[in-house]
Specification:
Layout: H1 14-30, H2 36-39, H3 54-71, H4 79-91
Helix pairs in contact: 3-4
């Protein structure tokens, strides 16, 4: 007698994977205590809770001004105009 071969279980499709992830996220949104360890990665903070980012913007605009000075784009500008540009961009929030 010939032994029957067992059929391999097919890998899940991308749609099935998406549905299972969606079910887990819905389950975690209903029950705050379960899945808390991985659900915190999906939470987003508003711009008011992020701490401002003044120093990051300041470092970025200083780097941009130094790069533009190195290429010769801003050679005719005086230092007080560059200071106003840096302060303006560093204080600006989107």
């Amino acid at each position: 007698m010939v032994a029957r071969k067992k059929k391999k279980k097919a890998d899940p499709s991308w749609d099935e994977i998406g549905k299972s992830i969606g079910k887990k996220i819905e389950m975690c949104s209903k029950d705050d205590k379960s899945c808390k360890s991985w659900a915190k990665h999906f939470e987003s903070k508003s711009c008011c809770e992020s701490g401002g980012g003044f120093f990051g913007r300041l470092l970025f605009i200083i780097g941009v001004v130094c790069a533009l000075n190195a290429t010769g784009v801003m050679t005719g500008l005086s230092w007080w105009i560059l200071t106003l540009l840096i302060a303006g961009f560093a204080l600006m929030k989107l």
